């Protein structure tokens, strides 16, 4: 009999404690942090003076992504070996858009590394003849 009375008294208290934990938002887990994600990444313009001379390479950029998903503070970590390609990479990334990183469900600034690779197209730009002629003449 004492066991029944004890169980009858303990059961409602246990259920009440469970309900209190479920309703307490402080005890619920915070949302997991999320990394930066690319939304719009149009390709960079390939500088004709580099493409026409056979230049290829990869620029690795350090890019700050603000809480609004807009890139800022873009710096070259590793050069492609062609200043014009590095500049084209920076200019392109300035126009990219990202979903910002989050912490506790709120957007936060973050930094990422972005490789931008330039490979020669199958067909060279039509103005290569003009560029090659200008280079041949020394200007």
UniProtKB/TrEMBL annotation:
<dbReference type="GO" id="GO:0098797">
    <property type="term" value="C:plasma membrane protein complex"/>
</dbReference>
<dbReference type="GO" id="GO:0031992">
    <property type="term" value="F:energy transducer activity"/>
</dbReference>
<keyword id="KW-0813">Transport</keyword>
<keyword id="KW-0997">Cell inner membrane</keyword>
<dbReference type="InterPro" id="IPR006260">
    <property type="entry name" value="TonB/TolA_C"/>
</dbReference>
<dbReference type="InterPro" id="IPR051045">
    <property type="entry name" value="TonB-dependent_transducer"/>
</dbReference>
<dbReference type="Pfam" id="PF03544">
    <property type="entry name" value="TonB_C"/>
</dbReference>
<feature type="signal peptide">
    <location>
        <begin position="1"/>
        <end position="22"/>
    </location>
</feature>
<keyword id="KW-0472">Membrane</keyword>
<dbReference type="GO" id="GO:0015031">
    <property type="term" value="P:protein transport"/>
</dbReference>
<keyword id="KW-0812">Transmembrane</keyword>
<protein>
    <recommendedName>
        <fullName>TonB C-terminal domain-containing protein</fullName>
    </recommendedName>
</protein>
<feature type="domain" description="TonB C-terminal">
    <location>
        <begin position="31"/>
        <end position="127"/>
    </location>
</feature>
<dbReference type="GO" id="GO:0055085">
    <property type="term" value="P:transmembrane transport"/>
</dbReference>
<keyword id="KW-1133">Transmembrane helix</keyword>
<keyword id="KW-0732">Signal</keyword>
<dbReference type="InterPro" id="IPR037682">
    <property type="entry name" value="TonB_C"/>
</dbReference>
<comment type="similarity">
    <text>Belongs to the TonB family.</text>
</comment>
<keyword id="KW-0653">Protein transport</keyword>
<keyword id="KW-1003">Cell membrane</keyword>
